[in-house]
Structure formats: C-alpha cells, structure tokens
Fold:
Amino acid sequence: MIFIFIVSVFVVIHGITRYQRTGSAYKAVYLSKKHVAYLEKYFDFFNKLPPQSRKIFTQRVASFITSKKFIARNMESVTDEMKVLISASAIQLTFGFPNVQLSHFRNILVYPDSYYSLINRTYHNGEVNPRLKAIVLSWKSFVEGYIHDDGRNLGLHEMAHALRLENKIMNEEYQFLDKAALKDWELRATRTMKEIEDGQESFFREYGAVDREEFFAVAVENFFERPLEFVEKHPLTYNTLRQLLKQDPVLLEKL
Ligand SMILES: [Zn+2]
Structure:
C-alpha cells in the first residue's frame, strides 16, 4: 500500500512516466494533472471526447512524449506545455490507430517562429524530414493553427505528412492505412485537385493542388477544423477520409 502511494507520488511529481513497449502496443504511461490541464485549456478536440476516450488520449500523449526527442532551436528549451500540445496534435490525427505514434520520426524540432531553411533558401513554418527522422514546427504558427477553426492548422498539416511517410517506411508501423481506402482517397484527391486547378473549388485552399501530399495535408486540416462544412461540401471525400483515418470528427460536433 505504502509502495503504491510512493509510486503514485512519483508519477504525479514527474508527470510523465516511463514508456514501455509490449509487442506492438504502447502502454502504461500517464500525464500529470498539470499536463492534462494544458489539454483542457487549449485543446478543443480533447474536450469534446467522451470521458473514456479522454483517458486513452492522455495516455497516448504521454507515450508519444516519452518516445520523442524534443529539440529547441533558436530558443532555450521546449517547455512541457509545448511538448503536450504538439504531441496532442499527433495523437488527434492518429487517434483511430491505437498502436501508431509515427515511430520513425523520433525528433521534434521546435522553433519560436518561422525559420530560414538552407535547403531551399526560404522561410518555413514547418516541415517533415524523413532523413533526419524529424518533424519541424514553428511554435507561433502551431499555436495560431489551434486558435481559429479556419481550416488551417500547421500541427495537423505536418503530422499528416508524417503519417503518409510513416505508412510507407518499413518498420513496425508499416502500411497501417487501409489499402482500399487509400486507393479511394487517391481517386477523390485527383478529382478535387483538378477542380482546384480549374478554379471550380472553393472549400479547399489552392495550396492543396500542389501535389497529392499537400492535398492530403490540407484535407486533414479541414477534416478536424471544419468537419461539418467538409461533409456538406464534399460528402464522399469526407467519408473516404473518415474511413482512412478511422475516426469521425462530425460525431464529436454532435455530442
Ligand atoms: Zn505541406
């Protein structure tokens, strides 16, 4: 009993417990109350979940945090608040896949604002780099993404790129996306990208027509930020994305 008490205190003090793997499942990690409070304060998706799902969400966020290396760039440190919210963005996207936590991408690089990329000599707000196993984010843009439900969300956008890459990288999370749903998705994406190019599309922003990866990332932003408008304007595309991601944000709007 005393031992359990000591262990509980340890968990509360340290917040995020160690992470363990058993087979392909991640388990037994918890967030402290302080960390859960960040989700309650800033993360709408979390607050809309039923209580049981909220518990699973916090465990998955804790597991994600402990499996990643957070690296501060142009600033002193990545705060716990940043770690919790960035991880929550990844878990929001992968909530339909209990065993997926984008394991290839071990490094999360956080800049305070947009940063200059030497690769293509422009300023970036975020990117995913499979070679460096990194997801890179501007904290300012990340926060802005969650302030407005306007179909623009940097965190979800970059996590969406990471998700598609993770699905192709041969590791324990290889090919978790349903092949039939993925095929349907490519058909829908091709049609809608053509409509964007022809100026017949008003729901998805123009950037979605750059290539298939960008269309997927833009669609994911809208799937979570404006699900009701999405399902009304593009019911078949929404339904395909719902099947692909194994979750339905429209249901959360109706709870
Ligand atoms: Zn992109």
Observations:
- Residues 157, 161, 214, 217 surround zinc ion (CB under 6 Å).
- The chain has twelve helices and eight strands.
- The longest helix spans residues 179-197.
- The two ends are 39 Å apart (CA to CA).
